Amino acid sequence: MKPRWTGGPARLTLVRHGHSVGNEADSKAREAGAEVLDLQQRDADVELSETGREQAASVGAWLDELDEDDRPTVVVSSPYLRAAETARRAVERLGVEVQYDERLRERDLGVLDGLTGAGIRARHPEEAERRHKLGKFYYQPPSGESWADVVLRARSLLQDLRHGYDDARVYLFTHQAVIMSFRYAIEGLSEEEILQVDREVQIPNASVTAYRREGEHLELVTFADTVSVEHTDADVTEQEDQAGSGGDDV
């Protein structure tokens, strides 16, 4: 069942961070059949790649071209560097302050962080088996989070947005699994429905997912739209976040 919105933002837009050095490391590890990503920094400190910086600038150029009443009035970002940098570069010319909220951070993969599917199968075969049994939505890596855990974060933030943000145009800069979790919470989707969406669509870097408040509900306007990147020379990329998705290819 969809939650009711008798107040709160008039529009809610989620932007995935630009291509990161973690995305690069993940692609190289998968291509090489490696078990571990060649990446030394913690997930929170993974920065944008050169392509990602170009994508973030493209989002900024796209926002500049929007009508005044379509531009963001509130901008909130994951504190993780790749999302925060995307947000800053995207809105630096708009004069809107970027706020940070840890509820928008990437899903914590716990002991599986930095491992490819091959690495998980080799080093944690019991976790590969447990994930297969529980399914992607409810599987929680040791010391990490399940998708369901991320949904709880999304619901908490949505509850806050219902109060004090009437008619605002809110932009959230965040991560792939978080955007999927917002879709689940906002649209009242079932486990199977959100997993079907996930199977069909890989959310591109710097893509836009937008909702508009219609009556008492937020209605999806666009999903994983790359219009903000396609109108420039920046490349469109669709890599999964660092360390894949907690063993989605296990």
What does this structure look like?
This protein is α/β, with parallel strands linked by helices and 250 residues long. Helices cover 39% and strands 14% of the residues. The protein has helices spanning 21-32, 50-65, 81-91, 117-123, 125-134, 147-161, 176-187, 191-200, 227-230, and strands at 11-16, 74-77, 98-100, 169-174, 208-214, 217-225. Helix 2 (50-65) packs parallel to helix 3 (81-91) and helix 6 (147-161) crosses helix 7 (176-187). The longest helix has 16 residues, at 50-65. It is globular.
Number of strands: 6
Radius of gyration, in Å, reads 18 Å
What is the string of helix and strand elements? EHHEHEHHHEHHEEH
Look at the structure and name the CATH superfamily.
Answer: Phosphoglycerate mutase-like
Strand content: 5-15%
**Average pLDDT level:** 93
Enter the CATH topology name: Rossmann fold
| The CATH class | Alpha Beta
Shape: globular
Amino- and carboxy-terminal Cα gap: 32 Å
